[in-house]
Records
---
Amino acid sequence: MKILAIAEQRDGLLRGVSREVVSAAAGVAIGHEGEVDVLLVGGEGIEAQAAELNGSGAARVLVAAHGALADYHPDGYARILKGVVEAGGYNAVFLPATSQGKDLAPRLAALLDVPLAQDITGIAVVNGALELLRPVYAGKAFTRISVDATPVLATLRPNVFQPQDWQAEVDVESVEITEDPSSWPTRIVSFEATGGDIPDVAEAGVVVAGGRGLKDPENWNVLEDLRSALGNSAGLGASRAVVDAGWRPHGEQVGQTGKTVAPKLYFAVGISGAIQHLAGMRTAGTIVAVNRDADAPIFKVADYGIVGDLFEVVPRLTQEIRTLKGEG
Amino acid sequence: MNIIVCIKRVPDTETRIRVGDDGTSIDPNGVKYVLSPYDEFAVEAALRLKEARGEGEVTVITLGDDASQETLRTALAMGADRAVLLQGEVTADGLATAKGLAAEIRESDPPLVLLGVKAADDDGQQVGPMLATLLGRPCATAVSSFEVTDAGVVCRSEVEGGTRVLELPLPAVVTITKGEYEPRYASLKGIMAAKRKPLEKKEAEMGPARLQVKAMELPKERVAGRIVGEGPDAVPELVRLLREEANVL
Ligand SMILES: Cc1cc2nc3c(=O)[nH]c(=O)nc-3n(C[C@H](O)[C@H](O)[C@H](O)COP(=O)(O)OP(=O)(O)OC[C@H]3O[C@@H](n4cnc5c(N)ncnc54)[C@H](O)[C@@H]3O)c2cc1C
């Protein structure tokens, strides 16, 4: 089984989710006489990042480098991918289910005339064919699906597939680019970076999420302190109530009409646990709830709960974690 | 400016999902169906654009069975001008759906087609950019606000790490997410008017579905954990459990 994994870079640096996708592909290929190629698209010099994929399970990294490809360009990337997929004769193509991957994969599907499964959380091989597991109804159910077309195209949810270490070096080959960027209709106007180094809630390994219980947007420093105590992999999340109130940006909303997240640790602070919120975070590894209402529904899904005033509990928690990490 | 909005009928987001007898889809008994929330944002965006420009027509299209007429009427009651029901199979294969929509939209070729970023049932998140690609149009996805300018449509999307702004020449396809377009409630007058607005029915031309649902399962219920304690005094025990039992610190 020959699989192509699409790597993702931002600002010329390989993103962690790339290794998850490559490892998931390798996990399938290795058991089925297969091999994995990676496609890395980016600006001039991006080939330097290929070494980051040593040991990921891939045999080759195909590098498509061009000044016009430094930032994600939907038209350009879709056409480059189509060329590489058609030339390679792959049985399956996997992308990360990031904003970029979920934007790009449907375009590729239409160009190749194959169906697409977005945001999958499991891959199995059944009688030689791939079977994919994906959440539906915002995680309230899962479907097992099969695809009657080649290649099987899917995007993989971040934080679900474990990156592996297989200790083999990758061969690097470059992809010839015949595309003319002036024929791409979309114009990239700008990218306004927010949040500095804080990971996006959908990709963070640990999420500190706040709700209406915080009472005022000024109070978010309480959560920000906890987040920074937890380290660089921690991000901030929010309930819809506080996003709708304009306290927090839309990008932080977790739930049915926000993002679906699967961090290893999720703190729900001053969040009641409405069904639409639970839909977005119920697959988190460990859930901790802090709420002053012992009957709040969030306690029905939380692994650990503290009943109490968040303004007393959270600063204490921050302090204890700092002490634990030797920073207190 | 004429705008087409593609919409879908889905279970209300409050629905408790049960697996149906076929083992591959939900048990529809007792389920209340609504216009998918993201599509609601798209309808709202189209209506605001029409109102701001003072001209143009908003057409809503859905691909589905007769029950979807109710969903079309909901959008008409919000203020859309006309509706089209493409009668066809509701499938998990977004490409088959996109083909059905493309066959219809190719004829009228409006400058702007809007969709919700994803349907709140199968969360497929693909029909918009597939439709755009089939029509050979540019597309922006997960857009929280947009403006039509002389050059085209300028779209803002929140993505990991920031906000991306794209400009697409018209005709274009845009998928809408939560952001600027908090949907209006249909007025009583709107609901009455919707009954008389044109609703056309046609066969969808969509091709075979090549993505099959083999089984639907419910996630393992999370076992309710334990209340570690009350107030800040419970914190040290919580930290110990997170470290020693859950292994996450
Ligand atoms: C179509 C639709 C889609 C939706 N999508 C989403 C979605 O994507 N995401 C989402 O989150 N919601 C969504 N909702 C909204 C959802 O139904 C809830 O309204 C929302 O999640 C409530 O937010 P909250 O928990 O912050 O606020 P509340 O429900 O008001 O809860 C606040 C909680 O804070 C606690 N509290 C108050 N003060 C303190 C204190 N000092 N210390 C400790 N605890 C305190 C209270 O006990 C309470 O439990 C959606 C709703 C609909 C209809």
---
Amino acid sequence: MSLVNEIDYGTPASPSTEMVTLTIDGRAVTVPAGTSIMRAAMDAGVEIPKLCATDMLDAFGSCRLCLIEIEGRAGTPASCTTPVAEGLVVATTSERLDRLRKGVMELYVSDHPVASLDPCQQDDLELLDVAAQVGLTENRYGFDSTRHRNTGLDVSNPYFMYDPEKCIVCSRCVRACNDVQGTFALTITGRGFDSVMAAGSDQSFLESDCVSCGACVQACPTGSLIEKAVVEQGKPDHSVITTCAYCGVGCSFKAEMKGDQLVRMVPYKGGAANHGHSCVKGRFAWGYANHKERILNPMIRKSTSDPWQEVSWDEAITYTASEFKRIQAKYGVRAIGGLTSSRCTDEETFLVQKLVRAGFGNNNVDTCARVCHSPTGYGLGLTFGTSAGTQDFDSVEQTDVMLLVGANPSDAHPVFASRMKQRLRQGAKIIVIDPRKTQLVRTPHIEAAYHLPTLPGTNVAILTALAHVIVTEGLCDEEFVRTRCDWDAFQDWAAFVAEPRNSPEALAEAIGVPAADIRGAARLYATGGNGAIYYGLGVTEHSQGSTAVMAIANLAMATGNIGKPGVGVNPLRGQNNVQGSCDMGSFPHEFSGYRHVSNDAVREIFVKDWGVPLEKEPGLRINNMLDAAVDGSFKGLYVQGEDIMQSDPDVQHVAAGLQAMECVVMQDLFLNETANYAHVFLPGSTFLEKDGTFINAERRIQLVRKVMEPRNGMADWEITCALSNALGYPMHYNHPSEIMDEIARLTPTFAGVSFEKLDELGSIQWPCNETAPTGTPVMHIGSFVRGKGNFVITEYLPTAERVGPRYPLLLTTGRILSQYNVGAQTRRTDNVVWHDEDLLEIHPHDAEERGIADGSWVKLASRAGETTLRAQITDRVAPGVVYTTFHHPDTQANVVTTDYSDWATNCPEYKCTAVQVSPSNGRTDWQEDYSAFSKQSRRIATSEAAE
Amino acid sequence: MGHSSNAPNKLVAMANQIGTFFATQPKINVPEAVADHLRKFWDPRMRNQITSYLKSGGTGFDPPIREAVQLLVTQDNQ
Ligand code: SF4
Ligand code: SF4
Ligand code: FES
């Protein structure tokens, strides 16, 4: 294996369809109009030396290395900033050019603290490669020049460092931060020889606005910005392309290795979801794979009050199978179930649901998507006919108006947020519906056209009010609706939304937003050109979550914003494989491809393939399983890579359910919170240790490639197979590709997918079948999956969770950039420098009323429970609203969330809980008890004691 | 403090909540739509619990939901 070296074309590709032919060094080249001569030359295989240019960034023209000569034109223009023209005759080398380049290069090198000109001696120095390329073999000025701007090393960022001495002021880092990432954290300070790059206003990287995305490090050609791991471990020697295991953006990375050690993750330009960009999590936060707390041996115990005993894989699997068999014999076939994980691969998820349906003989399988995007499935299924985002990410380049509802992509989907920002800086507009002033409301060079800070729980009201304006002001796209949608359903819907009680004026008070703003936003979305809706868990995690998803679909259909690039309805998926885990049949009522278990024809296909009879009744959902456990009819649970004890609402209820079970099997990397209640612990493997696929928020199936052996001895899919075999339902696969073949055989939307094709194409967006052999970037072109688009009436019904004198504030929850979900992975990396505890955001007015100081401890109480954490006083939240994250088990923010849930799917109402906040001087009883219990429960017997 | 379970009153509340959506939809038979939803998404033990509760004279049902659960009872008897 070797390093994957991507070609750097020097400047970005031109989108033009008009072609131009020119001659470069005697070769005829045909390229799109607008291409730079530098890029055209590279296309023809001629690499012009360059330093300030790289194809992730627009040309800058500062280094003067890329000079060329053009017949009939005077001088030596820079090839990076000179566009092609028909018939040009270009020379990239000549005696004059060579001399000029060498001169420039010599100056750069002399000003740069290197010890020699041998690129092999240095770590990762593009500068020296270019020196070699221009034929510079000696440096007349010597290597011991000291820079006059030595401001010292900046090692404040945990993952990379900055050595100003090595900066050649090419501005690649500054432009990467501005143009690619959109953070504007870097500047060039000083003049002439004194100029140098600086973070913020001469701050350290850590103090500056830097979000540690790594784009500047990638862009730096001199090693002035460099990963600490490269300095410590040396240059990688081979790399493998794989997919990030954090969020639903699904960035492609080169895992760069030295022997069997991972040195760094570098975003892959060929990745169709990220085009070479990344965020701090995927780029840097992979150290958890080697964290000392990772469990590598299987363990069992009779009771959760016993310490864990390490056992062999064989013993652990045999014990689990015998327990599950015992429980089924005693309490019935439906007394056990399983949970798939959105963090595992499609293949692993598919096997867990197969194990439950074919091996357990029931349909008690659910997944963490229950608690995030299950309403998307229900809502989009009813309106469009299938449960998925309609667009690819690239579609945003053609969007004129973005309507962002209940999502905070800058923190949760950072790489897509950077794409949105690029488009917004080009002039597109954005409307933000969110109780909080999130980053996209105002960030450098971006200001939302409207921020509608709704009170939590009023999404359906505001979405219906937007529809009211669109219908009553005649802003519908009637032609689209007549040809593409069910006209009768539209008329019923239009009559409903037009009722005066649905007007912005009638609903403004309930929503907490001025009617005029709602009207303005509706007009902008309907008439501003291509309108695209992006939404997140702020929409789904409500008692009317499914209704809000339908309200969103209604808006898109009414305005004709569906079925072409630039528009659409796009759920931003939280975890890396939420889309995949849903597609794979993780819900208790449906097989892969969203087909109901009661459908005889569909079930028959699976019965034939799997060779066992299958249950036609839906199984239990997670929350129903916990309820049934308390009732005594559900006794055993196999959990793959989920931490329901931390991520699910009303923690005390989850604990009661788990405690009532006789065999809880936890498969994960760490002893997570759920493991405190487990009887069997099966150590899992990381995404670096297995092959498989993830599916991102744009339905894009991408390969995850194994770069090292599983440290626990088995990939997760192998563990599920072993368990199934022990239970008497044989499962044999030699490689995950064979599992994908089975998925393709059984699932029409995946019919054309195979590992081989994924290897060849890089990625595939489902549906992929005979009519779409390379996949489907944009859905519902020409007609909806269900035929005619269906308008659904969305009556606003306030949640039963109301504020009152005891609980006068509304709590909403979310996450931040550097941490991921329950934090099991990111808390075990240096990302904790940015967020080492959950904080409660509270408005200055509410804080003052309660005598709460910034940074002081407060008690957060709801009717479900109470916890303590520290307060952060900010006007990001409106008066009456408080906000926190759920990354840390010490806080257990979900102790306070309630068991209210979406009417259709039981997706919990995380985003709206009535609470009270008061000053506090210590932890709550629950926190004390839980922390003592947790410590007790995590004990592992030493091998001596185990004997 | 008791922890919630699939106790009948919780199931009734869940069914009533489902009803609040269907009650707003035009041109549908609400009890049938709710019964269909329960058949599609509720595991048999939950349906049994709610039908037994109704048969034993349980209360708290919104009127169309009572009818919906009655439909499940009738279907079970067939
Ligand atoms: S790491 Fe990213 S955010 Fe930070 S300075 Fe570099 S490009 Fe900007
Ligand atoms: S966490 Fe998301 S945005 Fe960040 S690198 Fe991974 S996939 Fe990309
Ligand atoms: S690469 Fe063209 S001027 Fe620097």
---
Amino acid sequence: MIYHEVLVVGGGLAGLRAAIEAHDAGCEVAVLSRVHPVRSHSVAAQGGVNAALGNHPDASDDNPERHAFDTVKGSDYLADQDAVEILTGEAPGRIYEMEHWGCPFSRTSDGKIAQRPFGGAGYPRCCYAADKTGHALLHTMFEQTLKRGLRIYEEWQVVSLAVADGRCHGVIALDMRTGKLEAVGAGAVVFGTGGAGRIYARSTNNIINTGSGMAIAYMAGVPLKDMEFIQFHPTSLFGNNVLMTEGARGEGGYLRNALGERFMEKYAPKAMELGPRDIVARAIQTEINEGRGFPGGYVQLDLTHLGAEKILERLPAIRDIAINFTGVDPIKEPIPIQPGQHYFMGGIDTDADGVTEVAGFYAAGECSCVSVHGANRLGGNSLLETIVFGRRAGLHASTYVKGEGGARAKAGSEKVLAKVMADTEKRVIWVLEADGPEDPAGLRDELRESMFRNVGLFREEKGMLEGLDKVRELRGRYPRIGIRNRGRRYNLDWARNLELEGMILVAEAIAAGALARKESRGSHFRTDYKERDDQNFLKHTIARLTDDGPRLEYRPVTITRWEPQARTY
Amino acid sequence: MSIEMKQRPEKIRLNVYRFDPEVDKAPRIDSFDVPWVDGMTVLDTLFYVLEKRDGSLAFRYSCREGICGACAMYINGSHRLACETQVARLLDEGHAEVRVMPLPHLPVIKDLVVDMTRFWENYEAIAPWIVTRSADPEKEHLQSPEDRKLVDEYVGCILCGSCFSSCPSVWTGKEYLGPNALMKTWRWVADTRDSAAEERLGLVGNERGAWRCHTVFNCVEACPKDINQTTAIQGLKRRTVGAMLRGSKALKAGRKALER
Ligand SMILES: Cc1cc2nc3c(=O)[nH]c(=O)nc-3n(C[C@H](O)[C@H](O)[C@H](O)COP(=O)(O)OP(=O)(O)OC[C@H]3O[C@@H](n4cnc5c(N)ncnc54)[C@H](O)[C@@H]3O)c2cc1C
Ligand code: FES
């Protein structure tokens, strides 16, 4: 049996940061990822990462406390404030560390890390590397894993988590190249498996963001938290929903409807285009729904007044993407955009050290919910989350394996893994041999469309009930799928449809949580309950998987110093 | 650059390379008719085949926006990213059909999925991480925007392997580090924060490295991110010669000095 002291699943920013920390703390570490680390979704992040460095002339009195307040307000007061203070307090240190590791940040004229304004933030504190910040950070992080010589299992897809008696013993993974299932034992397992955007139609996420890590944990008995909070980004490209970064508005871009109006003055008269994402996204959708959009359903992101020089220097990738996919050159013409699914505020229930209910099982990054984003994440806080909480999870995991989780766990894990392997094999082989009449690609499309329509930007009871019915119907149809390819090596048909079941289960947790939350808060906007209701819903939703679907529980929000106020921008 | 709006065919023929070295005696080309969708990319056509026609097709993908480097392939006679290549553009270039092959000169794992081991090993061999001799400052290292510009082109690399696959010196020289690893060496030599420039030159200023580049410019043509690897390699040669003439000790230390 393969065994590692600390096994990190995920080669994105959170996973690699956890691996580096565990290694530096003296543990033997391996990283396992379904794609080569630099292909992870983190590479696609564009706009930047927040830290109160005060490098911008307009931000000389910025500090972590102000950053924390903006984050809490942005979260519509659902974030745990103790965790937020950790996030913003550790931010400058983590950013300087990335710079010391060689990250090619853009620079101010006096040579410091450049910062730009971002939505919902009182100060320009979003550190950037042109509009390829995720790429710059992830490549730097990957360089540091190479420097440490960490073992990487590339193109291994985890399919189940081995848990017994409240303790994690490792994972079962499919090696894509051989098509073999392998048991990988570990003293501690850290998930940095990313988001689940592809459960939704019109997603800005990369194609592999199916939420399989969330689903695997959920199926192994680990609860999910605040799943109903889904961020829709205001500006995704009309047609294929590739992201047009908030940085485009941070640099001064305008939003205009078909009448040529800068309509944000109706919705956020002070912040205008730089209101928080939930508010700007709903404003755009309202313009479209009320007939002030362009045919097909979009509005325009206008950068033409910024001039060629600024666009070429600060937004080069945005320009390339717009030209490549729509033939529009933002220097000359406005870009057609519409809201798209973007980010999961919810995820695997963890604390600020990545600790879950299962001893030895940790999660960090987008797959986790600490919670620092509450009901609405501020742009630039999620890259930050990956490096702050990835590090903390790696550190805690290493302490755990050096203490109680170490040798003792190894002794028992072989048996547990053998049993989990037997169960997993049954399920996995069933999919490989599935020859029912249902087309899994069709099921996936139905799920995505229904979630976008029924549990999307605007929600109401009737639609959500339909959404829930749809999910349950798909759950019933899944056992009748058929797949076309029975070969084992690099079988995408198999690997993709293995995770379809998990996508359906996660969707059910989202819809159930949304239906039960009879209020509007952050990204969760109900047309039948338009107000925030702190009396009844200032609390986290915890979903546990049972045979009858999710069972919901609630947990109070931690408030340290910012009492909930009305949220105006 | 931009794609013209015009009448398109109802469907398009996709010819795609198929080979499973563990099963097949020889590679073959399979053809599929793919219904036209406006804005469709080559990656979209591969997904159409996977989901609707032949579930055994293997290819790599992730971001679908040209930044992760997973989907580099040889499409209608050029290195391209499948996700960034619109079928309409291929037609506008005069191609009647779409032809998709794996990255040339790399071992095939299955269909369009190639074995990039040598590419990654070479990348790792150049010590692609920052090396600093003095303690890190409390805050950031200062770097002027002009100095940052010196690396701008090179940090844009997405490690897709196109340049490596296109280079005749790579095909013939098993030891050769290749255009990517060399360009990445230059990325660190040019970075004002790095203090191991001459050791890096020592690492690549030899037959395994920069001298082996015969300025064929295939890499420059193949790069989907418009990076000029050849300029970077010429930079390495120039700087190496300078350091040699000065009798640089660091140059001789080379890789040893860059150990982790
Ligand atoms: C287009 C776009 C732009 C963004 N821009 C910004 C921005 O400017 N600022 C900001 O703060 N945030 C941004 N975000 C959000 C941010 O990029 C992500 O939340 C963050 O990068 C997630 O990082 P991660 O490490 O948690 O996961 P990822 O980077 O998604 O990595 C997940 C890893 O897990 C692996 N994995 C998943 N499932 C399995 C499995 N079953 N088995 C094995 N491996 C598995 C994958 O291979 C991958 O390596 C953006 C998001 C999008 C969609
Ligand atoms: S899928 Fe990422 S570059 Fe094409």
---
Amino acid sequence: MDSKKYKPQMGIFWWTDRWSSIKFILRELTSVAVAVYSIIFLFYVSSILQGKKTFEEFSESLKSPAFIALHCFILLCLVFHSITWFNLAPQAMVIKLGEKKVPGIVVALMNYAGWFFISLAILWLVTNLLGT
Amino acid sequence: MKKHSEPFWWTLFGAGGAVSALFLPILIFLTGIAFPLGWIEVPSYDLLQKWISIWPARILVFVIVSLSLFHWAHRFRFTLYEGLQLQNYHKIIAIFCYGSAIAVSVYSFYVLI
Amino acid sequence: MSQEKITLEVFRFRPEQEDNPVFQSYEVPLRKDWVVLDALNYIKDYLDGTLSYRWSCRMGVCGSCGMMVNGTPVLTCATFLQKFAPGPIRVEPLSNFPVVRDLVIEMTDFMEKLKKVKPWIIRKDNQEGPEGEFIQTPSQLADYKQYSMCINCMLCYSACPVYGLEPGFTGPAAIALAQRYNMDNRDEGQEQRMELLSTDDGIWQCTFVGECSEVCPKNVDPAGAIQRYKVAGATDWWKSFLMPWAKP
Ligand code: SF4
Ligand code: FES
């Protein structure tokens, strides 16, 4: 008595159906921003290695409005990446202290603290060691 | 279990996700926005040169860049499978994603180390 | 007081009379204490006896009344009509599953997957157990308790795009259930299950969309279970890669 069944198909744009899916796809696409910026950063560092002139030229070209706009956009994506990443961390990382499970929110806060600390440390390095 | 490469890529993806989440926002804020706009004075070339000539600094840059790329490779590979339903091309996509991450990593290794 | 009404647009599929599903609208009383399931029962009793759907306990325990309500998978016995006023409310069968009739889906695939992950206590020695009983402390119970709350309602499968795209994927509830036994201190079956779940159809297909945990009515957090499984799987992999001589 095997009668026919209706088999729903997912459309190719399934991820536009719901807000949560759109957020999911955006989260996944931040990886593109990660890749693009890591390459720019590589160029930045390698321009330092290539000598003063290359570095200054490269720094100059970074001042163009197009580059600034691009960088602002990438920064937005990267912050979104960081936030989503840290928010999900507690689900993957279950830390136990003795008998007790460390609550998820504490794990997430530890991540944020690390982010804050690293950012501040780099900022401090750059601003305070300027002249030395 | 041994023949499976998935855990290997996933580890790189995870490490890259963490490293990029921690380091990249502040770096792009400095090199891409604050320096060019003059909000923060760019350290002198000699100083930057001095920093980057330290071994651990160059290794750190290599680790950040390379892991970030592997993070992209893994995530983007699945985004193509799911977002565009390209599962049928999974071999080509995997080779393209991991391949470019490996290629750029090798290049950055060559540049930095 | 005149009775307020609300419209339900119900997914109908009668294989003997239509190839493609249609939506049929019914007007039901909008009562404050009514859940969507009450409205369906009202339709069945007073408006249209041909409507088919599953339900049993009416109290969020049996897991059989899951449906899509306005696009979200929910237990219809735990979802109030009032929430959707003034309507209309769209009621559809759980997505990602073949539909047998109206709101009834075919769940064989899920049943097979459940069985595959060996959701029972496995002992290496194949013996019944120790003399007397296994000891389990409250903290050891807490390690897996969350995962044991699953009522097999399949809402998580409905919410999972990976399952929708890759029907082979073992899926949230089954993996969470595997974890439930892995984390049980009486169990020794981790290796067997890992072998199963570290294949292409297992944990590595999950991309942590996270929707499964969002819709789960029992807070099982299947997404978390899968990520923890990945961490364990990756650790095993690196161990056997770096120390191939060590017994897992
Ligand atoms: S994990 Fe939650 S949503 Fe999935 S079947 Fe179990 S109770 Fe239902
Ligand atoms: S009828 Fe049993 S869970 Fe809803």
